[in-house]
């Protein structure tokens, strides 16, 4: 199988339907995985920020969800293996989970934490640095809807718990990659509004209006992040260490670490070893398939 065909299959595997319309949303985003992977794989060394953290205020207890931080750290770790620079960015409500993910899987990775109070001054201080980055990558990070408010899949306004990181995501001339699974994440503005409205519950209301140069749609965002790392492994066979990040056990260990830190399943709204309502065996199936496809392409 040619590398391009394998990457197209990775894209399909990542978009496995889990009941939120991901397979339909993935159709107009086709090719985004290859484009995004090529932009990161070279020849220029990437200097990237990865945005993540989706707070679930209705959870017991409230916390960031398990989808997003895992994939974000996986991508950042891959970029460091490529010789590039990477940092994560999140906000205060999501910071405990994101920082726990970094401590468990990528020690030393910088994390920028946005405050909810005094955000404008904080963002202004970071803007010169972010405007110089080569890539801005969002992995399951909620963005503004048509009315400017960030909304969860239930249509609830979670602006009181969410810093407007879209302002930094749209800074400068960096190549922007968006990763999402439900239409309300940064990057999803690349999709036709009528499509999101048709296939996603409350899609007209929750759809993020911020687009991206390349959009990756997953059944869970973590799957699409894994597919991106798999793409980098295919495009850069000179860095075999990338394949170690694709082992399902790598994800299992990191999932356990962030749940211990308080992360919650965004569907079940409680801390469990699951992602978007999927217990580990079901969640791990696409991860295993992604790893197998990359291994078979040697």
Can you walk through the features of this model?
The chain is an alpha/beta fold and 298 residues long. It has a single domain (3-296), classed as inorganic pyrophosphatase (n-terminal core) (Alpha-Beta Complex). The protein has 12 helices and 10 strands. Strands 5-4-1-6-7-8 form a 6-stranded parallel sheet, sandwiched between helices. The chain has a two-stranded antiparallel sheet with strand order 2-3. Helix 5 (95-105) packs across helix 11 and helix 10 (221-235) packs parallel to helix 12. The radius of gyration is 17 Å and the shape is globular.
The ordered H/E elements are HHHEEEHEHEHEHEHHEHHEEH
Number of domains: 1
Got a strand count?
10
Sheet having the most strands: 6 strands, parallel
In the CATH hierarchy, the third-tier topology is known as inorganic pyrophosphatase (n-terminal core)
Mean pLDDT: 97
Rg measurement, Å: 17 Å
């Amino acid at each position: 199988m040619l590398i391009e065909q394998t990457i197209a299959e990775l894209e399909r595997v990542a978009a496995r339907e889990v009941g939120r319309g991901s397979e339909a949303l993935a159709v107009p985003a086709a090719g985004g995985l290859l484009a995004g992977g090529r932009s990161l794989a070279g020849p220029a060394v990437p200097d990237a920020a990865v945005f993540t953290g989706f707070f679930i205020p209705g959870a017991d207890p409230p916390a960031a969800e398990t989808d997003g931080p895992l994939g974000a750290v996986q991508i950042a770790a891959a970029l460091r293996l490529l010789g590039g620079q990477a940092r994560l960015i999140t906000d205060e409500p999501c910071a405990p989970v994101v920082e726990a993910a970094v401590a468990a899987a990528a020690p030393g990775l910088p994390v920028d934490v946005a405050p909810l109070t005094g955000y404008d001054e904080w963002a202004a201080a970071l803007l010169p640095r972010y405007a110089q980055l080569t890539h801005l990558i969002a992995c399951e990070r909620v963005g503004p809807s048509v009315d400017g408010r960030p909304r969860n899949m239930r249509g609830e306004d979670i602006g009181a718990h969410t810093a407007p990181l879209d302002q930094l995501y749209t800074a400068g001339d960096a190549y922007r990659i968006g990763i999402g699974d439900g239409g309300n994440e940064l990057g999803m503005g690349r999709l036709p509004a009528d499509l999101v409205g048709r296939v996603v519950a409350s899609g007209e209301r929750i759809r993020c209006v911020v687009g991206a140069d390349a959009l990756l749609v997953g059944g869970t965002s973590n799957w699409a992040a894994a597919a991106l790392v798999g793409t980098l492994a295919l495009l850069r066979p000179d860095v075999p260490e990338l394949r170690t990040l694709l082992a399902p056990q790598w994800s299992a260990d990191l999932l356990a670490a962030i749940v211990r830190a308080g992360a919650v399943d965004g569907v079940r709204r409680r801390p469990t070893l699951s992602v978007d309502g999927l217990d580990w065996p079901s969640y791990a199936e696409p991860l295993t398939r992604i790893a197998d496809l990359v291994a078979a392409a040697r």
